[in-house]
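S1.2 Input.
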Amino acid sequence: MGHTDCGAVNAFIGGKSGGRIKMITDKIRLAIGDERDGCRACRLNAKACQREVEQELTELYPAVKVIGALYNTDSGEVEFL
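S1.3 Output.
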């Protein structure tokens, strides 16, 4: 599950992706591409993480299904992806 207003996503979008979070923001860059809307970027990042976890798990458990979600920090709602 990802979440809106993610500090790492916001750091990448804001051009502050160096230092200790570079390893994380490098993956975010691959997930969100040119997207600069924070909420859409968080959703894209959560979907990318979902695919990555599902790919790793299906090697061991072929029937597994991973369901991604995005937690909205403003409303408290969870959107299943």
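S1.4 Remarks. Residues 38-60 form the longest helix (23 residues).
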